[in-house]
C-alpha cells in the first residue's frame, strides 16, 4: 500500500473535504490549517481545483462549485440502488406519513443514498450524501450487525463512541450486545441517541447471496410517536418495503454493484 499510495492525490482530496456544511467558505489559511498543509501547498491545490472548475474564489474566500457534484454522481449513477429504492420509499412514506431513507456503510459512517422526507425533524438537513456515525443510528446498527467480526472490529476502531445525547450508547460491550440483538430480531431501533427527539427504526436490504448491502429506515419525532407505536405501526410496513426493494434489486441484478461498495 505504501508503494502505491499517491500522497498528492490524498492531499487534494483532503482539501475538498475541508469544505462542509459548517465551513462552506474558507480562506487559504483556513484550508491549510484544516488539512495540515503549508500555505504554499494549500494554495497550489486550491488553484488547481479552481482551474478544473471544482472550486471557485473571489480572491480571498474559496468555496466548492456545483461541478463537485459530478464526483459524487459518478458513484450514485453506477449504483442503481437509489433508483430502485425510491418508488418503494415513496410508497412507504405515503403509508406511514414519516420520512424514510436508504443508506450504505462507509467506514464508520452511514451515507444516505436515497431519501423521501416529510416534515423536518432534525436540526441538520438530511440530503443525499449526508453522513452520520453508524453506531448511534438505526441504519448504522443494521449495517454493523451483519459485518464479519473482523470488519466490525475495524469499523469500531475507526469510530470512537462519542456521547451525542444523554441516551447515546458509548460502551463497546453494550453496543456489541445491541448488535447481537439486532441480528437476532432482524431490525434495529434507536431512541434519541443521535439527536434528542429523534426515533428511528431500520431494516436490512440484502443481495441475492444474503449479504446486507444497505439499510432502509423510517424516522419520527419522539413527541408524537412512542416506542411501542414505532414497533407496532412502523415496523411492519418498513419490513415490507425492505422486501420489495430486495425483490426489485434481485430482479435487476443490481445488488452485485451495490455489494461492491
UniProtKB/TrEMBL annotation:
Key word Transcription regulation present: yes
Record bears the keyword Hydrolase: no
Lineage: Bacteria, Bacillati, Actinomycetota, Actinomycetes, Streptosporangiales
Entry protein name: IclR family transcriptional regulator
Domain IclR-ED: 67-251
GO terms of biological process kind: 3,4-dihydroxybenzoate metabolic process; negative regulation of DNA-templated transcription; positive regulation of DNA-templated transcription
GO MF terms, alphabetically ordered: DNA binding; DNA-binding transcription factor activity
Keywords linked to the UniProt accession: DNA-binding, Transcription, Transcription regulation
HTH iclR-type domain sequence ranges: 6-66
Matching PANTHER family: HELIX-TURN-HELIX TRANSCRIPTIONAL REGULATOR, ICLR FAMILY, TRANSCRIPTIONAL REGULATOR
Gene3D superfamilies: 3.30.450.40, Winged helix-like DNA-binding domain superfamily/Winged helix DNA-binding domain
Organism: Planotetraspora silvatica
Gene: pcaR_1
Superkingdom as given in the UniProt entry: Bacteria
Amino acid at each position: 500500500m505504501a508503494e502505491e499510495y499517491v500522497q498528492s492525490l490524498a492531499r487534494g482530496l483532503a482539501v475538498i473535504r475541508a469544505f462542509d456544511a459548517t465551513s462552506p467558505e474558507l480562506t487559504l489559511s483556513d484550508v491549510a490549517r484544516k488539512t495540515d498543509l503549508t500555505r504554499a501547498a494549500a494554495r497550489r491545490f486550491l488553484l488547481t481545483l479552481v482551474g478544473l472548475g471544482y472550486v471557485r474564489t473571489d480572491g480571498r474566500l474559496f468555496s466548492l462549485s456545483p461541478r463537485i457534484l459530478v464526483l459524487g454522481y459518478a458513484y450514485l449513477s453506477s449504483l442503481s440502488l437509489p433508483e430502485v429504492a425510491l418508488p418503494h420509499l415513496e410508497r412507504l412514506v405515503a403509508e406511514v406519513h414519516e420520512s424514510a431513507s436508504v443508506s450504505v456503510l462507509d467506514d464508520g459512517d452511514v451515507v444516505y443514498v436515497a431519501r423521501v422526507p416529510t416534515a423536518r425533524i432534525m436540526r441538520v438537513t438530511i440530503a443525499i450524501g449526508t453522513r452520520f456515525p453508524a453506531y448511534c443510528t438505526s441504519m448504522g446498527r443494521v449495517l454493523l450487525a451483519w459485518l464479519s467480526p473482523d470488519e466490525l472490529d475495524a469499523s469500531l476502531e475507526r469510530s470512537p463512541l462519542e456521547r451525542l445525547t444523554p441516551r447515546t450508547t458509548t460502551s463497546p460491550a453494550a453496543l456489541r450486545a445491541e448488535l447481537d440483538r439486532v441480528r437476532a430480531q432482524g431490525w434495529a431501533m434507536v431512541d434519541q441517541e443521535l439527536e434528542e427527539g429523534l426515533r428511528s427504526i431500520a431494516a436490512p436490504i440484502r443481495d441475492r447471496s444474503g449479504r446486507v448491502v444497505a439499510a432502509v429506515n423510517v424516522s419520527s419525532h419522539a413527541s408524537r410517536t412512542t416506542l411501542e407505536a414505532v414497533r407496532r405501526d412502523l415496523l411492519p410496513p418498513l419490513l415490507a418495503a425492505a422486501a420489495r426493494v430486495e425483490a426489485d434489486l434481485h430482479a435487476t441484478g443490481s445488488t452485485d454493484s451495490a455489494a461492491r461498495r
